[in-house]
């Protein structure tokens, strides 16, 4: 996607490395290795944290300075027939309140009208890990289209009032103007047993609602104002050739999607964009994933040839709740996509028993069993069965493209996947790696990697 910023180097840059945010550069695998061994900031945890805070301050200060506040407020006021409005808070970087106004990808500006109504302006952050502008704008349009579609359902989402991705618009940056939903982000780990049951009861209704809106293809909603499914709005699955964006999808077959996803990761590691220094291990893992797709498809027994909308990051903080644990809204739909029924309605990540999951356990957790029972009690036995038997999909998805920086976490997940598939069970990593090297010895791509 990017080339190395070091003068005289034309190698492809490695993707998704948070260290770039500090120096604002894109580096290839060779220069990452060089800088890591010579840069004291990368070696010292405290220095890194200080440098990261400074870099974030500079990023957000620059972002806020690019916004024409008068134009933003004027646009919001016009959309409400001239009702005056103002900023809820002064636009300045404040680390003490950052959690309430920004996430990893977006910054939110509160707009308060004189009658008490509050909107949010959602603006994409911009740093060295951000996608190119055309991909960024495609993801914004997809989020708008998704929220507009969900606005016609019973799923509680913020209403979209306006959006503009044209960088030449009066506001100065692309934005989405949306309703501010009351409530706070759910902290699942801190919720009591009764609170969890209440939330799962509401979540079961949301699952049932989404199950009543099938789509014919797999991909992302991509045209605001329509229910059209286009390519996947995912940075991690988007390629570039000759400065041209190459999106994945849409598709009509789950096996085709899984194969394309794994092959995409293999292509990136062959080009040096991912897994710098661990290319051989990553190749062996992804080659195994590719070979495992026919066995994985046997777990798609609940598929009906249709595809269903799924939130791409269901770890819990996408759910807003009030003080009584009523769900007030589901937010952050920017990477949403449609998937086959067996995969779309697997357990939300937040319900997984985290420790057991990363240890590779295939036993269904207590929260998963409770959620399945609630679905069954509401007359949705098929969705309940999907929840009870969805662990294999989680393992496969986590292992595909997993960051090897968390090596111990990966080993547990990979063990769990092999046990779920009934393949290469009982082997530790070194034994499996040696066997895989022999199994794939004739693969031409592996031969090239071994010669590097």
From TrEMBL:
Pfam families: APH. InterPro entries: AGP_Transferase, Aminoglycoside_PTrfase, Kinase-like_dom_sf. It comes from the Eukaryota. SUPFAM superfamilies: Protein kinase-like (PK-like). Gene3D superfamilies: 3.90.1200.10. Residues 140-334 form the Aminoglycoside phosphotransferase domain. This is Aminoglycoside phosphotransferase domain-containing protein. It comes from Aspergillus avenaceus.
């Amino acid at each position: 996607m990017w080339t190395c910023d070091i003068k005289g180097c034309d190698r492809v840059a490695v993707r998704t490395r948070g260290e770039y945010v500090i120096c604002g550069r894109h580096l290839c695998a060779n220069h990452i290795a060089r800088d890591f061994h010579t840069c004291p900031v990368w070696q010292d945890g405290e220095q890194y944290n200080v440098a990261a805070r400074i870099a974030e301050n500079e990023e957000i200060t620059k972002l806020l300075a690019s916004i024409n506040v008068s134009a933003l407020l004027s646009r919001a006021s016009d959309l409400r027939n001239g009702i005056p409005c103002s900023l809820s808070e002064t636009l300045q970087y404040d680390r003490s309140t950052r959690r309430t106004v920004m996430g990893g990808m977006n910054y939110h500006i509160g707009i308060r009208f004189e009658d008490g109504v509050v909107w949010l302006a959602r603006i994409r952050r911009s740093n060295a890990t951000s996608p190119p502008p055309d991909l960024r704008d495609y993801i914004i349009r997809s989020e708008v289209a998704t929220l507009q579609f969900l606005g016609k359902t019973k799923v509680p989402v913020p209403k979209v009032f306006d959006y503009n991705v044209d960088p030449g618009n009066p506001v100065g940056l692309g934005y989405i103007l949306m309703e501010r939903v009351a409530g706070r982000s759910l902290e699942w780990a801190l919720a009591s047993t009764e609170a969890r049951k209440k939330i799962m009861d509401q979540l079961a209704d949301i699952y049932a609602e989404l199950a009543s809106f099938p789509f014919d293809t797999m991909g992302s909603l991509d045209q605001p104002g329509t229910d059209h499914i286009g390519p996947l709005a995912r940075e991690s699955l988007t390629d570039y050739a000759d400065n041209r964006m190459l999106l994945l999808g849409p598709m009509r077959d789950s096996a085709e999607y899984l194969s394309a996803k794994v092959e995409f990761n293999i292509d990136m590691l062959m080009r040096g964009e991912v897994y710098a220094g661990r290319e051989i291990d990553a190749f062996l893992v992804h080659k195994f994933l590719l070979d495992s797709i026919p066995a994985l498809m046997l777990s798609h027994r609940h598929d009906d040839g249709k595809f269903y909308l799924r939130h791409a990051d269901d770890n819990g903080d996408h759910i807003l709740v009030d003080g009584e644990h009523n769900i007030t809204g589901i937010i952050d739909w920017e990477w949403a996509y449609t998937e086959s029924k067996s995969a779309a309605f697997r357990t939300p990540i937040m319900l997984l028993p985290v420790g057991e999951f990363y240890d590779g356990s295939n036993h269904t957790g207590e929260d998963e069993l409770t959620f399945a029972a609630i679905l069954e009690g509401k007359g949705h036995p098929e969705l309940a069965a999907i929840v009870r038997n969805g662990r294999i999909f989680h393992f496969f998805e986590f292992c595909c493209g997993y960051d090897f920086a968390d090596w111990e976490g990966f080993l547990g997940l990979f063990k769990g996947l092999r046990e779920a598939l009934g393949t290469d069970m009982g082997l530790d990593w070194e034994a499996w790696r040696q066997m895989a090297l022999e199994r794939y010895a004739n693969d031409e791509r592996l031969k090239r990697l071994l010669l590097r």
